[in-house]
């Protein structure tokens, strides 16, 4: 059994209005699709774990014509579970590849920064067919491929939303480049906080990441 890690870049024109608004919103940091199921009446049922503002998430889906139901269950610190029911013509989207081939997706499917990251598992020939079909709809980058040996606990499970955002912004600012191309002041400016607060967020996040690596 083989796996392939993929990053997809969907065409904005193919996205639903709600998906496009979520991608463009600064209030929604990251969405992890944990599971989905297509019912007999072609309603798509989705369960996600989201880093971001739950009120913004609700408002965006409330204005969408293809969302039949949206339930949000907060966890803490702008993290929440979301259950959606989507109607419409799913057959014209890149979801089609998930419905017509024999393979397993390994959750989560991650929506972040206008990209979709996912892992698929199955016989190699079947995975190649999936990639071929997806290539007709989206831009695909193959990140890694190999024999599947399972996954450990996700590092992101250890981080609060603020810690995760601080790490991502620090990386984008060049704070972790070698040699360093961004300063703590740059990170604090984007986070709109003091340098002391930015430093504390980064150190706590780095501690969790290091512990996750050392105990893997």
What does this structure look like?
- The protein has helices at 17-24, 54-62, 96-99, 124-135, 161-173, 184-191, 195-214; strands at 2-10, 28-38, 44-52, 67-76, 79-86, 104-112, 115-122, 138-147.
- Strand 4 (67-76) and strand 5 (79-86) form a beta hairpin.
- 34% of the residues lie in helices and 34% in strands.
- With 216 residues, it is of the alpha+beta class.
- Strands 4-5-3-2-6-7-1-8 form an eight-stranded antiparallel sheet, covered by helices on one side.
- The protein folds into two domains: 2-147; 155-214.
Beta strands, count: 8
Question: Mind summarizing the main beta sheet?
Answer: 8 strands, antiparallel
Q: Could you list the spans in which at least 5 consecutive residues all have pLDDT below 50?
A: none
Distance between the termini: 23 Å
Q: Total helix count?
A: 7
Helix content: 25-40%
Over the alpha carbons, how many angstroms does the gyration radius reach?
Answer: 19 Å
Report strand order across the widest sheet: 4-5-3-2-6-7-1-8
What's the pLDDT, averaged over the residues?
A: 87
Instruction: Count the domains.
Output: 2
Indicate the overall shape. globular
**Secondary-structure element string:** EHEEHEEHEEHEHHH
**Portion in strands:** 25-35%
Structural category is alpha+beta
């Amino acid at each position: 059994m083989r796996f392939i890690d993929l990053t997809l870049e969907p065409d904005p024109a193919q996205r639903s209005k709600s998906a496009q608004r979520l991608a463009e919103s600064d209030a929604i940091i990251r969405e992890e699709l944990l599971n989905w199921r297509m019912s007999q009446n072609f309603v798509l049922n989705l369960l996600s774990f989201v880093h971001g503002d739950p009120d913004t998430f609700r408002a965006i889906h409330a204005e969408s014509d293809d969302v039949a139901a949206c339930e949000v269950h907060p966890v803490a610190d702008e993290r929440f579970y979301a259950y959606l029911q989507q109607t419409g013509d799913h057959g014209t989207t890149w979801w089609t590849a998930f419905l017509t081939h024999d393979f397993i997706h390994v959750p989560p499917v991650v929506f972040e920064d206008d990209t979709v990251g996912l892992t698929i598992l199955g016989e190699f020939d079947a995975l190649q067919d999936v990639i071929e079909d997806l290539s007709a709809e989206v831009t695909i980058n193959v990140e890694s491929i190999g024999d599947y040996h399972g996954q450990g606990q996700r590092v992101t499970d250890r981080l609060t939303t603020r810690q995760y955002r601080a790490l991502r912004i620090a990386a984008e600012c060049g704070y972790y480049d070698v040699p360093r191309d961004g300063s703590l002041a740059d990170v604090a400016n984007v986070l709109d906080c003091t340098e002391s607060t930015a430093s504390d967020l980064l150190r706590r996040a780095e501690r969790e990441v290091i512990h996750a690596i050392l105990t893997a």
